[in-house]
Design a protein that fits this description.
The strands form two sheets. This protein has a three-stranded antiparallel sheet with strand order 1-2-5. Strands 3-4 form a two-stranded antiparallel ribbon. Strand 1 and strand 2 form a beta hairpin. The N terminus is likely disordered. It starts with a strand and ends in an 11-residue tail after the last strand. The chain is mostly helical. The longest helix has 34 residues. It has one domain. It is built from 16 helices and five strands.
Length: 465
């Protein structure tokens, strides 16, 4: 008999999965992330050694130093993204996937689709206007690191408006069904009283809310993250195990930030990286947004677990051997986190379904990024050790970090509740329960020997392309 699982919030039953069952195919190949990594690391080396390279090539570099400015940081995003796009198209041929919704053999006369395209352009531009209005209203977006994001988006806006016209006309001629949520929203504006698909409009707004919120955030942290790695002298990096560990860990965060930024920018049907569905559950949004500014609960918020605390470098100072081991452990944990982002290639995004990822660290657990990230925070911050406040402060910090880890567990469950509407993810979920090391470990600890397999999709999520 089917039963409801409180953990997943969906209908599932006990069911066997063969011992030799193959892992479901990943929507992204491993090569996409690898070429993105190679492009990024190549540019990082060029940026660090720009004066020496210029001298070798006989170029007058003048008084300019390393290429550590914000424009160079954006160039590094391109150096990461362009190889991933080329690999996706030329090697993986993702544009041929049926899930794009594109029939490349179909080229309707533009006169047949121009009304649809104009309606979609109205919907798209109105959506962009709403996002711009939100940015303009929230003062937060014009301060600190976000000021760079707003300046960049302001400069890009006219070009995006211009390019969107031929892009939309070109795409709609080839779309199997061009009347998507963007079209429905445009129709709602231009033809009041005409029937529209409300669910498609809701999906359209959720998808663009994700893209608008997280693209601005990612662009805001790219320059600082990039500059810190380009400008630092290697003599400082190699000064002690702590500095070496911090620099190498920051390289991994550079990989994560850049590939994630590329992912948010390249939500495009021709690359099969569009948003199939955005999380429809309110609590899923609450759990995710609690981890990002301006809503963040950590780092100065009510769940700040570092008050009167110090990181591993402080507590292990003078013990270089132990510090080296600690740095290696932290590097390994953050490497898994960066690897998890790499696995998505050009499809990384919070709160969305853009294809099921089953390779890389996702062959070991369904949530490698959350597991490794939280473990790295425990190892790096050592919340049970404090510089002031005694045992009370130590207990408080430990409990607060436990609460943070709890939020990430909550995020994982709300994401699964969303993704399980896709039978492809349900198959991966069932496979992971039976074969992935981490779920198998927890299943054994819980006394369960067989996986739980999901049955019917949740109708609230909507269709999955």
């Amino acid at each position: 008999m089917p039963r409801i699982s409180p953990a997943e919030g969906t209908n599932i039953v006990d069911g066997p999965v063969g011992e030799n069952a193959l892992r479901p195919r990943s929507a992204v190949s491993a090569g996409v992330g690898v070429v993105g990594l190679l492009g990024l690391m190549s540019y990082l080396l060029v940026a660090r050694h720009a004066p020496e390279i210029a001298a070798f090539l006989g170029i007058d570099w003048g008084q300019r130093g390393r290429m550590d400015g914000p424009n160079s940081a954006i160039a590094s995003v391109l150096a990461c993204g362009i190889p991933m796009v080329l690999w996706s198209v030329l090697v993986d041929k993702v544009h041929r996937n049926p899930s794009t919704g594109i029939d490349w053999a179909q080229r309707r006369p533009w006169r047949e689709t121009i009304d649809i395209s104009l309606t979609k352009l109205a919907g798209l531009w109105a959506t962009w206007a709403l996002i711009a209005g939100f940015y303009a209203t929230m003062r937060y977006y014009w301060e600190g690191n976000y000021a760079f994001s707003m300046d960049l988006l302001e400069r890009a806006a006219p070009w995006l408006l211009l390019v969107s016209i031929p892009y939309m006309v070109w795409l709609d001629r080839r779309m199997v069904e061009p009347r998507d949520g963007c079209y429905q929203f445009g129709r709602w504006m231009l033809s009041p009283g005409q029937p529209v698909d409300g669910r498609a409009i809701a999906h359209h707004f959720r998808a663009w809310a994700v893209k608008g919120f997280f693209t601005a955030f990612m662009l805001s942290i790219v320059p600082g993250n990039f500059a810190s790695l380009v400008s630092v002298e290697m003599s400082e990096v190699l000064a002690n195990p702590y500095m070496t560990g911090i620099w190498t860990i920051n390289v991994l965060y550079l990989v994560d930030v850049h590939i994630a930024t590329v992912g948010y920018i390249l939500t495009m049907k021709p690359l099969d990286s569009h948003i199939r569905t955005a999380n429809p559950y309110f609590m899923g949004w609450i759990a995710a947004l609690a981890c990002y500014p301006p809503f963040i609960l950590m780092n100065g918020g009510p769940l700040d677990y570092q008050v009167h605390g110090a990181d591993w470098g402080y507590w292990l100072e003078g013990h270089d051997g132990l510090m080296t081991v600690w740095a290696i452990v932290l590097f390994a944990l953050v490497a898994v986190y960066a690897w998890a982002t790499m696995a998505f290639g050009i499809r990384f995004s919070n709160l969305t379904h853009r294809g099921v990822i089953t390779h890389g660290p996702y062959a070991f657990t369904r949530h490698p990024a959350y597991v490794s990230k939280n473990l790295s925070w425990w190892v790096a911050s050592l919340p049970f050790l404090v510089t002031a406040g005694g045992a009370i402060e130590a207990v408080r910090n430990t409990l607060l970090l436990a609460a943070v880890s709890g939020i990430y567990y909550w995020r994982a469950k709300t994401e699964e509740k969303h993704l399980l509407a896709d039978p492809a993810y349900a198959r991966y979920w069932a496979w992971a329960q039976a074969h992935a090391p981490v779920p198998r470990l927890f299943a054994k600890l819980g006394g369960r020997t067989r996986p739980l397999i999901r049955l019917d999709p949740d109708p609230r999520v909507g269709p999955v392309a």
